[in-house]
Amino acid sequence: MIKDFPGHDTHAPARHGETTGGFDKSPGWLDWYDGPSEPTFRLPAGAVDAHCHVFGPGEDFPFAPERKYTPCDASAAQLFALRDRLGFERNVIVQATCHGADNRALVDALRRSEGRARGVATVRRDVTGEELAELDAAGVRGVRFNFVKRLVDRVPTDSLEEIVAKIAPLGWHVVIYFEAEDLPALYDFFSAIPTDVVVDHMGRPDVTKDVDGPEFGLFLRFMRENPNVWTKVSCPERLSVTGPRALDGEQHAYTDVVPFARRVVEDFPDRVLWGTDWPHPNLKDHMPDDGLLVDYLPRIATTPELQQKLLVDNPQRLYWPEGA
Ligand SMILES: O=C(O)c1cc(C(=O)O)oc(=O)c1
């Protein structure tokens, strides 16, 4: 059973950068950017921020004992304020690893969204049908499998297969997060997943390498060979090496990532999604202005048709297939 926790608007709201509940932020933690600029790029009506998270608040939804980092709070109310500021209509909230397989903060945010958010949960192999039904009723439509070693301990493949068998009848999909260097070893396992599959952040390419080279070529081949695979062309702020950063009004941020994202959007226009990744866990050297991240979009989806698919039609097909 998912227990209802006391609503956090009964408490004083967490201030920007705070962590409540007696947790200390990881050393060097960067807080999300307060007061983002209003985007210059006008998002199409019905746009979905298809990758974002909530953290805690720690006081109401404690972070998981097995977590690899402790963030600042980033509440549902703060996420929805960002949604409105940037001009998005809806969100897809992805369970963050700092909450492990405890989906209470996610479920609470989904319930508060009044149908304007769907979720991607993390579950263990022993999850029951009753728990899955409850997650489904709250708006969860997928599970996340994480292979990034700095974020999680490795879960054995047979556990993941067992989870897939449980979620497939619900029509859910699998979100996978991995580093480009691990794709060769995981390629066959990923290709055998029978549900839709969504790859986080383009499989984290090394953007100092050639967009036409073998590493990114393998990722493009993975998408070409598996028509059930989608990807998020998100996180330029994570992948960029030379920037410039989305700060101080910069309108050409993360130029080194543009050719990679643009290639994917143009080759697979019906299987791409985009999200802010707010509140941007584990960034080390800067925190982007989310308004300027939205201004990055027309550089990777260069026509109104591509923008409509990326931001509206594709997320709607995957997360609100019943209609707007
Ligand atoms: O690269 C990351 O650090 C990261 C972490 C998480 C998470 O902790 O869930 O999610 C993301 O999308 C990206």
Structural overview:
This protein is of the alpha/beta class and 324 residues long. The protein has one domain: Alpha-Beta Barrel (TIM Barrel). It is built from eleven helices and eight strands. The N terminus is likely disordered. The site of 2-oxo-2H-pyran-4,6-dicarboxylic acid has 9 residues, from loops. 2-oxo-2H-pyran-4,6-dicarboxylic acid binds next to loops.
How many helical stretches?
Answer: 11
Average pLDDT metric:
95
Strand content: 5-15%
Bound molecules: 2-oxo-2H-pyran-4,6-dicarboxylic acid
Task: Give the helix/strand class.
Answer: alpha/beta
Oligomeric form: single chain
The name of the CATH architecture is: Alpha-Beta Barrel
- The tally of strands reads 8
Gyration radius, rounded:
18 Å
Number of domains: 1
**What is the helix fraction of residues, given as a range?**
25-40%
Organism: Demequina mangrovi
Keywords: Aromatic hydrocarbons catabolism, Hydrolase
Region (Disordered): 1-23
EC number: 3.1.1.57
